[in-house]
Amino acid sequence: MSRRALALFVVMCVIWGIPYLLIKVAVSGMTPASLVFLRTAVGAVLLVPVAAYRRELRAILPAWRWVVAYTVAELAVPWFLLSEAETRLASSVSGLLVAAVPLVGALLAWMTRSEHVLDARRLAGLGVGFAGVAVLLGLSIPVHDLGAVGEIGVVTVGYATGPMIISRRLSKLPSVGVVAASLALTAVAYAPAGIVQLGVSRPGAGALASAATLGVVCTAVAFVLFFALIAEIGPVRSTVITYFNPAVALLLGVTVLGEPLTLGAVLGFALILTGSVLATRRRAPASPRRAEEAVATDRAAPQPARLP
């Protein structure tokens, strides 16, 4: 890995690890609907002109139904529920629960026949990973917060479904256009409630700064940097950052917000991470020729972008 690729990798691990902390700060001063509106509106203002200049918005019109489906699964529903859940859950716990997305994705891929083989290794990975979720729930989350856990559960399903829609229905469309349109659609949908509730809650500077950072850094800038990382190391290797984001969320929650570092959080994260690696790792190519084909696929395959 080149120095440029390594720098991009480290930056992306941090950028997509801090949203949980920023969401926690933002919802202390505004409603979840207002936060989703501000974040997506800021991101749309930055990315829509880029997509329009590159003529990528017109290209996605024939697939508008699937763009709407992707928007609902990946942004509109998960971002609201994640923000709602963080009004009750610690940011570090939320980040660790979202770390189960690769497990849910592997299970959905098998259920929808995207992956025809659920071998012993993947079964073991699913078992270990979901055991980690159980440990996290049992040792770190009070019973009265289980409703918020259910909301995070819906978030993980949405985050796992969004990339499947991209890979199956939208893979040939320009990615910036898809994400820009999704941000704009979500902003429009949340504008009525979001704007009204902003006037009522009157958030302080800290909450507004967190929302703006989410829109600028964790959405618009992160998207541009992520595709630069893909150009350096390929899409498949780029997804490794998803294993580091929860660790960043845990570290920031404990050090910045003073959230407790519990035994359940440490053990749960270790098990979820191990299970995710086992459940999603592909088999090694059986021959040099297949190895070359795997590298070519890694470089060329469309990469679903998941914005935390």
Task: List descriptors.
308 residues, mainly alpha, globular
The overall strand count is 0
**Strand portion, in percent?**
under 5%
Mean pLDDT, rounded to whole units? 87
Give the CA-CA distance, first to last residue.
Answer: 25 Å
Descriptive notes:
- The chain is mostly helical and 308 residues long.
- It has one domain.
- The chain is built from 15 helices and no strands.
- The chain has helices at 3-15, 19-26, 32-53, 57-60, 64-85, 91-98, 101-111, 120-140, 146-170, 175-201, 205-233, 235-238, 245-255, 263-280, 288-300.
- Helix 1 (3-15) runs antiparallel to helix 11, helix 5 packs antiparallel against helix 9 (146-170) and helix 6 runs parallel beside helix 14.
- The longest helix has 29 residues, at 205-233.
- It starts with a helix and ends in an 8-residue tail after the last helix.
Please sum up the structure shown.
With 308 residues, the protein is mostly helical. The chain has 15 helices and no strands.
Task: Give the SSE map.
Blueprint: H1 3-15, H2 19-26, H3 32-53, H4 57-60, H5 64-85, H6 91-98, H7 101-111, H8 120-140, H9 146-170, H10 175-201, H11 205-233, H12 235-238, H13 245-255, H14 263-280, H15 288-300
Helix pairs in contact: 1-11, 2-6, 2-11, 3-5, 3-10, 3-11, 5-9, 5-10, 6-13, 6-14, 7-9, 7-14, 8-14
